[in-house]
Amino acid sequence: MSQPSTAKSTGWPMALRLPGLETTAAWLLALIWIFPLLYAVWAAFHPPAFMVRFDLFAPLTLDNFANAWAQAPFARYYLNTFLLVTGVVFAQFVVCTLAGFAFARFPIPGKDFLFMLVLIQLFVFPEVLIVENYRIASTLGLVDTITGIGLPYVASAFGIFLLRQTFKTIPRELEDAARIEGCGWMAILLKVYVPLAKPTYLAYGLVSISHHWNNFLWPLVVTNSVESRPLTVGLGVFSAPETGVNWATVSAATLLSIAPLLIAFLLFQRQFVQSFLRSGIR
Amino acid sequence: MVEMNSHRRMQLYGALLLLPAAVLLSTFAYLPTITTLINSLFLPGFRGAPTEFVGLENYRLLIEDSTFWRVARNNLIYALGTIPTSIALALAMALFVNARLPGRGFVRMAYFTPTILPMIAAANIWMFFYAPQIGLFNKLLGALGLSGVNWLGDPSVALSSVIVMTVWKEAGFFMIFYLAALQGMAPELKEAADLEGTSRWSFFWRVTFPLLMPTTLFVLINALINAVRVVDHLFILTKGGPNNATNLLLYYVYENAFSFFDRTYAATITVVILVVLAIVATVKFAILDRRTHYQ
């Protein structure tokens, strides 16, 4: 690995050798990065008068949360988001498992071409095609329904890809053993492939939950009533600057909408980060 | 003969397994892509429903539409403003967190947390900073005796404000890919370099950075896609204003389709987005996947 040392490599700032300075920089950046969130917490738990007055002894209050909860149907939004996320993830698991299994193990004519076709969806997302997808959703009578929000995402190229890769790594011998015991294809899928792919399901599930909890544009387009709006759209409608809602209340509402996912993340940081990593194929 | 039949059965079974995905993908990806292309060749009628075939007329209108050019330029500036900065910061963050650092767990969490917030929530939070009178930034400037800046209302500043918020939201996500790559690097490289007396600076540029190239390209593709795909924050921060100073392509599509009810023009702009995505996809599949593979 001997390399001729150049003037450039020796002449550079000594600062880079000082871990103290690097530590300071790392911490400074971390504080800047977390500050917006801390600020939202500050604003949500203090009376509006303390929005920009940082007084250590400012009175704490839950009024902002009470106001937010009273001014918008957050309970309903929670329910909608919960139904949306569970429904989408469950349907994705079913559809992508079947397709991933087919791509991994069945001799379908033109399989490689079909797989390339599937991968196109990694680039052409439902939200890019909002105009036509809205028309299709309305033809199918799905406008303003939770099904309408979720259905375009169910056949996820990403899920099909991940499961296909996982299924391909599972040794055929296990499949043969199950067949000798008299298992059909469905039983083989459910008893051999699915259990061995558990880590993939966990990773994909977490990524999918975060994505659909946070998704906004398509849900905004396809919903128009409280009965179907998820939290993000509810929050968007509630906190649009022109509604003139008090800011402390907006921060409380914002925290309400992000709390479940944020808490889940803080508790299961490692799993979340691992999942995002495993899913890094797009 | 029996062999043949069982092969046939397997094919049929496989096709049946693919069926649900095929129906859904056709309905919500392929069909809408094709109808988008077709609609861009028609003039709008009642509530934007396409009526009259006009060939490339919509594309002529697009080329003459100064707003479109402004929006396209914004999107380019937005991409150039967010991508290199996010990538550089993500790499710095990964290097920080990969080293021995007191409070590493907290620092890593701080970097990554914005990633799991919805864009809408992030925009709400940054609204507290950017708002003209009561916003934190102007309060701080005021305390220093400086006059405030209209962060989102001044056309020459607004897009930069949106870019800063996006960098904050994205950098931590890219960091985890760099971190994983750094952790996968052979420690012998560092030991060898130390024996040679290589400075950390030149070790970074001569060893680490080149080895991270596949990660950088991967992150770059993701960042490019996000730059045309994510416009959620505009709904809170600026609504594309002032005077289209922060309007981006997908938001312009939304405006045309759902505010101006001009579905065929919206389809025409969507075609532009699809072309951009097609170029990104080609680069990824034709060039990158041939030379590098991820996991």
Highlighted features:
heterodimer; A: 282 residues; mainly alpha; globular; disordered N terminus; B: 295 residues; two-stranded antiparallel sheet
Structure description:
The complex is a heterodimer of chains A (282) and B (295). With 282 residues, chain A is mainly alpha-helical. Helix content of chain A is 69%, strand content 0%. Chain A is globular. With 295 residues, chain B is mostly helical. Helices cover 75% and strands 2% of the residues of chain B. Chain B is built from 13 helices and two strands. Chain B has helices at 2-39, 57-64, 66-98, 104-112, 119-130, 136-143, 155-183, 187-196, 200-211, 213-229, 232-237, 249-258, 263-291, and strands at 42-44, 50-53. Chain B has a two-stranded antiparallel ribbon with strand order 1-2. In chain B, strand 1 (42-44) and strand 2 (50-53) form a beta hairpin. In chain B, helix 3 packs antiparallel against helix 10, helix 7 (155-183) packs antiparallel against helix 10 (213-229) and helix 10 (213-229) packs antiparallel against helix 13 (263-291). Chains A and B meet through helix 1, helix 2, helix 4, helix 5 and helix 6 of A and helix 1, helix 3, helix 4, helix 5 and helix 7 of B.
